[in-house]
Design a protein that fits this description.
Blueprint lengths: L9 H8 L3 H16 L11 H6 L20 H6 L16 H6 L55 H7 L61
Length: 224
Amino acid sequence: MTPKTPRHTPRRRLAALATTPVLFVAYAALAAPASASLSDRDGDGMPNRWEVAHHLNPDVANARGDKDHDGVRNLGEYRRHLNPSDEDTDNDGMDDGDEVHDGRASTAPRDADTDDDGVKDGDEDADHDGLDNEDEDDATESCLADDDDRDRDGVDDEDENDQGTRVLVADTDGDGVLDGNEDGDHDGVDNEDEDDSSHDSCGSTHEDRDDDDQGDTSGDTQDD
């Protein structure tokens, strides 16, 4: 009597199929979307998806550019999980570049209050010279790196809290006068001029900012 050939159990059958080229190709097809999402067409070290999400051009190698002129190159922004279109990612008053390059553990570009003392990093005075961290570079930074004024009221975002005005409201008290043209402390100096250095040629305008991302590193004196 001829012995019967043993039948494969479902488990053994699956194990046998797993080694076939057909299943291998199917598996590779399922994995392709994940790897494709990390592709980098221009080879600049920044994934296409990240560049598009942050308004950079994924078809132009712009790793060495500095879109927001904060002193951190685009590639450095990617590596540090910062926003290359915002010079102050954590909105603490200090530019990302200042926090990256100051060498202090008391400031971090993704933590507005690094030491958790209730005071934003920009309002601290780390070197105890009587000048807030956010104001240390006011006399030396180029106009391209000058601080944001998102509500166009003449007062830099970093100085709005010092003046008692609101960052995204151009006329905080609703009296028809821009916050920058007010004299909050009644000292005869408009709010927009309170923080200006005598050597600051930028004034209170930001019209000369250049926000392209085509690899221009003007105003960028630091690597990432």
